[in-house]
TrEMBL record:
SMART domains: REC (SM00448), Trans_reg_C (SM00862). The keyword GTP-binding does not apply. This is DNA-binding response regulator, OmpR family, contains REC and winged-helix (WHTH) domain. GO terms for molecular function: phosphorelay response regulator activity; transcription cis-regulatory region binding. The modification 4-aspartylphosphate is found at D51. Residues 125-223 form the OmpR/PhoB-type domain. Residues 125-223 bind DNA.
Amino acid sequence: MRILIVEDEQRLAAALAQLLKERQYAVDVAHDGNTGLDLALTDCYDLLVLDVMLPGQSGLDIVRQVRQAGLDVPILLLTAKDTVDDRVTGLDAGADDYLVKPFATKELLARIRALTRRTGNVSGPDTLTVGPFSMHLAERTIFRDGQPLSLTAKEFQLLELLMRNHGKVMSKELILDRVWGPDAEVIGNAVENYVHFLRKKIDVPGRPSYIETVRGVGYVFRVRDSQEER
């Protein structure tokens, strides 16, 4: 299961991430609300763990915008505020649970288990559709014009990221962070190589590539009208 932690106290964020990774969760971390919101809206998570007081967007702002986007991912708020009104405000905003700092590790893990048991599947829509592509997230399958494509796990992750952000330029650094992780050891031109592999599998011969290179920056996934013609 994938968990996003948005916490500006870097020691606490690192400790939480290590705790969850030791229990076989995949964890992403953001230290400000703007980055956290961007990750929550563009990636697929099974749980969001949000501090309430954050630089940029607050935890409550993130909750509201995630719900407005139609995502039903479980959300656990972490905060030092422990009044009834504070808890009610967080729950009314759309959070599923509320944990007051400082908290016991056992209680945090128990609440995470309870929240992830309620869903059992990845958050958000199960099918991601862009142009002729239809990606089924739970089954980890991808189709172009109804025909299945065979992708490796890393190719699937890269294509999912690009499709979720279609029309938006993604820098190589951001792609490395989202697909390989900030602590991963990446050899050589991993992004360029995997974009090359993807193009060979998803593009139609004689037509422009769905993955455009933005020189000096990164890549953008784009579907033109001519590419959607059957």
